[in-house]
Amino acid sequence: MSPRHFLDIAALDRKTLRGIIETSAKIKRKGQAPKGLKQGAVLAMIFEKPSTRTRVSFEVAMHQLGGKSIVLAPEDMQLGRGETVADTARVLSRYVDAIMLRTGPHETLLELAANAQVPVINGLTCRSHPCQVMADVMTFEERKGPIKGRTIAWIGDANNVATSWVHAAARFGCKLRIASPNAFSPAPELLAWAKGEGAKIEVSNDPLEAAYEADCVVTDVWVSMGDNDEKKRKQILRPFQVNRAVMAQAAKGAIFMHCLPAHRGDEVTAEVIDGPQSAVWDEAENRLHVQKGILAWCLGKEARASKARSPKPRGTRR
Ligand code: CP
Ligand code: NVA
Q1: Ligand 2 centre and the CA of 94: distance in Å?
Q2: Which stretches does DSSP call E strand in the chain?
Q3: Does 3 score more than 60 pLDDT?
Q4: What pTM, to 2 d.p., does this model score?
Q5: 195: which residues sit within 8 A by CB, 6+ positions away?
Q6: Rounded to an integer, what distance in angstroms lies between the CA atom of residue 79 and that of residue 66?
Q7: For residue 73, what pLDDT is reported?
Q8: Can you state the percent helix, strand and coil of the chain, rounding each to 5?
Q9: Which is the CATH superfamily of the domain at 9-128+286-309?
Q10: Selection from 264, 270, 283, 284 nearest residue 216 by Cα
Q11: 159 CA closest ligand 2 atom index
Q12: Nearest C-alpha neighbor of 283 from the set 211, 218, 215
């Protein structure tokens, strides 16, 4: 059996994802580490892009779970001088218990996972940001109860976070309405996948229609890390700002979420993000609790037992 990678919400089944959310909520409630975690486990984190929340929440999570983390920047590694991703995966697997990667191309993440003998966690790629949306689902349920059958409105760029929301709609059974301009709308293959999974997704160009009676309005930056068409994006996405008019369409008591960092005056007004419907600080906090749930699933007793049962590749010492 291969290691328990956390690469995408789409890659895992409903029961596993629900289990991770439940573990995360329990850890948050009880404030203690789940039993059966290997003490002194080490997580290596490779950041090819900047991060505040992902970096700090994983570091603190490992510390509070009784482990350690090592933060690696490609320019400080041989990876930055051309050592292959595959060789990096093989070597790190001999030292650490799990690897988290934040990178651009999703293929780099898949290559790392294919060659690692320890769990690999997606800390954001251009395609998806699953740890974030797990925290979003947890936050929604804390505030509004079970997400199944509820309506989430995504307004703006159908980016990596939106893709993880499409995956979440399929796995957690919420309805997702996406309002985005044609230039930044969800990929047809993604929508075809979602349809095949029975997910309820509606796509339009109308933020007010998408937000109508929604239980949650969510957005993200117009210019993601690695995007180099800032001027064009800001122009095209301007009508997709989450503001008072958009929130007025949503259901009574609807919440607003944003993965952060935010740009007030662009994708969201200060009035909304700093207003009473905003759940963004709980959402940011829940990154910490969800990282623990994810780490517990990747590194817990069950994961180790399934690894011990699987035949080890020749020459492997672990
Ligand atoms: N939301 C999020 O992933 O934030 P960072 O880029 O700060 O990690
Ligand atoms: N869509 C954003 C998310 C940042 C957490 C980006 O990729 O830059």
Answers
A1: 31
A2: 42-47, 68-72, 98-102, 120-122, 151-155, 175-179, 200-204, 216-219, 255-258
A3: yes
A4: 0.95
A5: 201
A6: 29
A7: 93
A8: 50, 15, 35
A9: Aspartate/ornithine carbamoyltransferase (3.40.50.1370)
A10: 283
A11: 1
A12: 218
Which residue's CA is the closest to the ligand 1 atom numbered 2? 53
- How many residues would you count in the chain? 318
Distance CA 199, CA 193 (A): 9
State the distance from the centre of ligand 2 to the C-alpha of 221, rounded, in angstroms.
Answer: 7
What are the backbone dihedrals phi and psi of residue 33, each rounded to the nearest 5 degrees, phi first? -70, 145
Which ligand has its closest atom nearest to the C-alpha of 136? Answer: 1
Q: Do the domains spanning 9-128+286-309 and 130-284 agree at the CATH topology level?
A: yes
The fold adopted by the segment(s) 130-284 is Rossmann fold (3.40.50)
d(CA 56, ligand 1 centre) in Å: 9
Check residue 75 and report its DSSP letter. Answer: G
Domain residue limits, the chain: 9-128+286-309, 130-284
List the structure tokens of 48. 């090819």
Q: Which of 103, 106, 133, 225 to mutate to test the pocket of ligand 2 (most atoms within 8 A of CB)?
A: 225
Ligand 2: residue of 160, 233, 266, 287 to mutate (most ligand atoms within 8 A of CB) is 160
Give ligand 1 pocket residues (Cβ under 6 A).
51-54, 124, 132, 259-260
pLDDT in tens, 211-256: 999 999 999 999 999 999 999 999 999 999 999 999 999 999 999 9
Residue 39 pLDDT level (bands cut at 50, 70, 90): confident
- Checking if the pLDDT of 125 tops 80, the result is yes
| Closest ligand 2 atom to Cα of 260 | 5
